[in-house]
Each structure stands twice: as structure tokens, then as C-alpha cells.
Amino acid sequence: MFTVSINAACIQMEVEHCSKTDNITKALSMAEKAVSSGADLIVLPEVFSTGFCYEGISDLAEEAPFPTISKFIGFSKIKECAVIGSIIEAQFQEGIPVFYNMCFCVEHGKLAGIYRKCHLFRQEKNYFAAGSSMHPLFLKSYGLNIGLEICYELRFPEVARKLVLEGADLLVTVAQFPNPRKHIWRTLALARSIENQIPHIACNMVGSSPASSFFGGSIIIDAAGDVLVEADGDECIIMHAIDTENTNKVRRDIPVYSDRRAELY
């Protein structure tokens, strides 16, 4: 693995239910602060622009070319950075809307790629269609492959392992992980990093929605499973440099990948 160093930031924000304009304004403002502090890569929580606004999903969901993503494409061009987040996407099939929980990644004024959540949790199944593919996205400006997963998918070790085996250099989880599951969130975030020997940015929200409250606890972890920085339960920005040379060292010291018995599993 070649060496890449990048300053990564997670924006742990309170998402106002169904308030797209206010949420986007806040996200852009906090992203501006992150860039001013030296961030190259900015991660936002799951459906940060709307929350799970099921009652307004038809009005708030976006079709291509995605106005919210376009704002962050413009931001990333001006600020020469990358941004990852998740919004509600609408597609029309024979005039009937189909909605997805869609994660996007933009860099330096371009859309690097999207990922549609494949594992839906409880009520999501009543409103969203499930994605059907997952592959790392390449950030050309940084020479970095990003493995994306969304919230509930943190519970599926197969997701992270597949992404890493396909070349992901960094795992990013965007989430609305609710109370009272803080110990589960932290344990799984660490486990996905340790078992795959990969740095991990897990970005959660704070505040509340009509159905849940959220503890925050966003965390950036290195490839050895060491916590680089961790948030509490307040709205904040956490940031830390991620250096893939550390990943190389971890994998040399403990050669998990060469010791795997793939023929058995």
C-alpha cells in the first residue's frame, strides 16, 4: 500500500427534523470551520439534510442532479476538499417514486461516487428501496479508496471486510445511531477497524427526532484500533490526521490478510 496522509473531520451535528434549508446551512457553516482548521476530508451524519422525514419524503427527496450534492460540489471546489454525507434520493420508475438512503462523496468540485444503503433497518424498509452493490470509491485528488457504509451496516462485518478486500484504504460510516446503544456503536466501530486493520471514521449525530434521541460519540480510529479522537454528546467537529503508512506497519506486524484461510470461508 502506498502512503497517503489526509486530515479528516467528522461534523457531529444536530439534525433538525424535516428542516432541509436550516440543516444544509448549518452543515456548510460547520464544514467551513473544519476546512479553516485544516480538514481535507469532511464527513457528515446520515441523512443530515432532512433526518428521517418520512412524512415529507416526497417533497424532500432529491432527483439527479441533486441540489444538495450540487451545493457541496461547489463548496468542495472552492475549498479544495472532499465531503461525504447521506441524503434521501428519489428515482421514478414508470412514474412511481422509489426512494433510497444515498451516500455521496464529492471532491474538488466533482462527484466521486455514490452508495445506496443496502441493509435497511426496521421502518426504513417501509419507505426505502435497498441498494444492490457496494464497492470502494476512489478519491483521485488524494489517491485514496473510501469504503462507505451507513449506520445499521456497522453491525454487518461482511460489509467492511468486502470493501477492504476490494482495496478500501479508509472506512467511513455515516450514521444516526440512537440511544441507548452507545456501547454497541463504540464497540462495533472499533471492531470494524481492528479486524480489518483499517482506519475508520464513524460519524454520528446528536439531538433528537420524533422517534429517537442521539448520543453522538463520533470517533476516528487508526488501523491498529487506537482511538485518535472521540466526541462526547454535544454538537462539535472532531478532526485528526490519518496516515496510511500506519496501516502498512500494522499489517506488517500482524499479517492477518496473508494468514487468512479464505478456502475455509
* Relative strand content: 25-35%
The CATH topology assignment is Nitrilase/N-carbamoyl-D-aminoacid amidohydrolase
Mean pLDDT: 97
The biggest beta sheet is recorded as:
6 strands, mixed
* Shape summary: globular
**What's the helix-strand series?**
EHEHHEEEEEHEHEEEEEEHH
Please tell me the CATH architecture by its name: 4-Layer Sandwich
Runs with pLDDT <50, length 5+? none
Oligomer: single chain
**Helix content bin:** 25-40%
CATH superfamily: Carbon-nitrogen hydrolase
Spatial gap, N to C terminus: 25 Å
Number of domains as seen in the coordinates: 1
Radius of gyration: 17 Å
CATH domain class: Alpha Beta
How many E strands?
14
GO molecular function: hydrolase activity
Keywords: Hydrolase
Protein name: Putative amidohydrolase
Organism: Methanomethylovorans hollandica (strain DSM 15978 / NBRC 107637 / DMS1)
Q: If you had to describe this structure to a student in words, what would you say it looks like?
A:
The protein is globular. It is built from seven helices and 14 strands. It has a six-stranded mixed beta sheet. A six-stranded mixed beta sheet has the order 6-7-8-9-12-13, covered by helices on one side. The longest helix has 17 residues, at 20-36. The two termini are 25 Å apart. It has a single domain, classed as Nitrilase/N-carbamoyl-D-aminoacid amidohydrolase (4-Layer Sandwich), CATH 3.60.110. The protein has 265 residues and is α/β, with parallel strands linked by helices. The mean pLDDT is 97. β3 and β4 (96-107) form a beta hairpin. It is 27% helix and 31% strand. This is Putative amidohydrolase. Residues 6-244 form the CN hydrolase domain. Keywords: Hydrolase. It holds the Pfam family CN_hydrolase. GO terms for molecular function: hydrolase activity.
